[in-house]
Amino acid sequence: MGQDFMETTHDKFVFRVKKGYLYHPGECWIREDGDVITVGITDFLQKTAGDVAFLELPEAGAEVAQGGEAGIIETIKTTVSLISPAGGVIRELNTALEENPQQINTDPYGEGWLFRLAPANWDADKNNLMKAEDYFPIMEEKIKKELAK
């Protein structure tokens, strides 16, 4: 498991970044799955936002823009706007999250995925995303700022 992730420990929390995924500064990730891309939120976001109580995602067939709002997560602590890391058409929603939104907290890079998207301009959108190795130090800086609060 450790080889699939980059990890850092701050205070009592372990923060993980999945290798092989692409990351948007809005704290979401993309995994390429053939002609669609799977989207979820980062471990950093799910840990700092808290336990997910409610999730609102766009309808299948809806169009989203890269960097545009693609839903809302409500936790005990806060409400977070979800950012789409790529533009395109929503093809599938993770309906398992309707019954168990906590999967976002327990497995943000796996069973906690949010939606699948047919990208409209993937080559251009991909240029605005970061590899895990580039996102990791940015996440570490965000962690330091959170802990300083």
Keyphrases for this structure?
3-stranded antiparallel sheet, 7-stranded antiparallel sheet, alpha+beta, 25% helix, single chain, OB fold (Dihydrolipoamide Acetyltransferase, E2P), 5 helices, globular
Description of the structure:
The protein is an alpha+beta fold and 149 residues long. The protein has a single domain (21-128), classed as OB fold (Dihydrolipoamide Acetyltransferase, E2P) (Beta Barrel), CATH 2.40.50.100. 25% of the residues lie in helices and 40% in strands. The protein contains 5 helices and 12 strands. Strand 4 (28-33) and strand 5 (36-41) form a beta hairpin. It is globular. It starts with a strand and ends with a helix.
Q: How would you summarize what this structure contains?
A:
This protein has 149 residues and is α+β, with helices and mostly antiparallel strands. The chain has five helices and twelve strands.
